[in-house]
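Hey, weird one. I pasted the YpdA family putative bacillithiol disulfide reductase sequence into the form twice and got a warning about non-standard characters only the second time. First submission, copied straight from the form history:
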Amino acid sequence: MTETLDIIIVGAGPIGLACGIAAQNAGLSYLILEKGCLVNSLYNYPLNMTFFSTADRLEIGGLPFPSIHPKPNRSEALEYYRRVADAKHLNINLFEEVSGITSAGELYRVQTNKGTYQAYHVIIAVGFYDIPNLLNVPGEELPKVRHYYFDPHYYYRQKVLVVGANNSSADVALETWRKGAEVTMVIREADLGRIKYWTKPDLQNRIAEGSIKAYFNAKLTAIRETEADILTPEGALTIDNDYVMAMTGYQPNFNFLRKIGVDLSPDFKRYPFYNSETMETNLKNIFLAGVICGGMDTHVWFIENSRVHADQIITTIMARRTALV
């Protein structure tokens, strides 16, 4: 701990980077701390993932995002955000996990696995991709159960059960089927959910022709080494199974927010408290930015609509500094 910074930013995703750029443009000292690699959540997306948005809506810091596709893919995004970090000479410590944030008078002490830092302000810009929503069924602890998906080749000639009805489930089902897997989907609702408009008809057609088997209004009830149990409107079924792909979504690290003292709503959504104009939490000079603001409602905030949080926060900080002069 060698200096007191104006801002510590927790998370080096696109919004954390945007906050760093905004701080830098305002002449504020800052450090971005990231527990994994740069844009760690994007790195862990499936290999062939394509964004729903066009490249211009993923841009930060005024730097153009060139893409040869109408909608950029994962590898293009990783390249773009690396270029942003280098072009802006952003001050980032990677693979340094924040374990605690405590008040020290007008300052905050930020403890990591590598050291301790002091700052007047803290911006929490972490995502929600690290903690999967569990199925809570017997056998979920088996190695065959996957909450993350990367490459379809691995599942060639395997019996794959996909749980879920949204984008991730659709991508897993279609990609693994096209690479030779026998795919069954278990869908809690009566129909498919939020799926990219160019993917949904494809999946609907594969289900209609019987290439992919789908059980609607159904749920997975148990998992064993070579089979799985499903409850459908017609009754219970047991199917042969090699892998269960539980594409049931993810959630923010609520325990971390509670630990540092951020208030959460008492309902299932667990919305963190913040002022929508300043992005300040119930803790003075601790701010939220990006998808973390949505609590369990992870389909509210994206890169596209939360880039503005960076400017809101830095504008607030600068206005307060001006008022003190």
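That's the output from the first submission. The warning seems to come from a hidden character in my clipboard, not from the data itself. The mean pLDDT is 95.
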